[in-house]
Amino acid sequence: MKFNGVDFDTYLKDYPNQEGFYGRYGGSYVSAELQKAMEEITEAYYTIAKSSKFISELRRIRKEFQGRPTPISHLERLSNSLGNVQLYAKREDLNHTGAHKLNHCMGEALLAKYMGKKKVIAETGAGQHGVALATAAAYFGLQCDIYMGAVDIKKQAPNVARMKILGANVIEVTHGLATLKEAVDAAFDAYVQEHEDSIYCIGSVLGPHPFPMMVREFQSVIGIEAREQFTGMTGELPDAIVACVGGGSNAMGFFAGFLNDPVDIYGIEPLGRGPKLGDHAASLAYGTEGIMHGFNSIMLKDENGEPAPVYSVASGLDYPSSGPEHAFLHDLGRVKYDMVNDEDTIDAFFKLSRLEGIIPAIESAHAVAYAMKLAKEMKRGSILINLSGRGDKDMDYVLENFGMR
Questions:
Q1: Of 87, 94, 339, 355, which has the fewest beta carbons less than 10 angstroms from its beta carbon?
Q2: Based on the structure, what is the number of domains in the chain?
Q3: Please, are residues 16 and 26 in contact by the beta-carbon 8 Å criterion?
């Protein structure tokens, strides 16, 4: 299938190019010292991670430790409450640790082990990436430093406890807004000092090349499984697929399985409290091209052209940019990016919980909310949602700030 001049038959092999670009987005904008570390990781990934031994080990881990494949659930009662469109969910909340994040963390930690590294370093927002990497570090016997904003530490106390129990060193970041962007800043600074013995395991399809590509490839197991499972269940492809987008790892892994199919693809950003700068984190909707954290993408900027303050009810989505591949797919028009506000997100959080017995992560509830809206507009057909994580981490926060619906 060709779309605006891009051949999606070979898309996953053609993009990124050797320099890590998706069109004009991506690349590696880091210091000369850090670029050497990026090149070391790239070389290792293209050799070690493409070997049959590495692939076999990762497949074994996914089956025996992660519990993959995760199932697809038909959301029958939720569907019936909306009309005739049938909603389904790819259950990444049932992946070990409760979210999609372990898919790339086990891959990155296995790569670190093969490279002889002793420590993994990462940032986290909602805490799911931190928990996943702490889990991977425990599994492989690696040291683990997790940088987390003070605001998110307070919001996501259960995940902080889980990281510490798993043996990770959780480092509080207090500068700036003390959320995800600042955690990334701090983790990068630490990695510059420790790159010889450690690897920075970026938590999304972000950062300098090769991380957007590596994370997409490790996460593509979601889309590959989902496509096979859905056609096995229904005999056809879904009419539409939906995933939330912050940095965009769950979405990119999910989309990868369907990019070459006649399926409508929707990436949903957090509109938060509204369109005013500082009240949302919808970078693809309101941002412009810019470089941060070592990559070129679409980002939200303040009056000085610096990364703008952002907000989302979901700690995993409050980042002022999106992965470069999302920016590319946005410009191509292959993926339709839209937004959902806090109110609709929380409504979807409770509806899915009460009608289906599934408490979603607030991040995932953005996708659920949009799928509910889309179902009413479509009238007939099917929608497959990537339920990227479970909501255990969010329950206290939701009840404290929004009450019982």
A1: 355
A2: 2
A3: yes
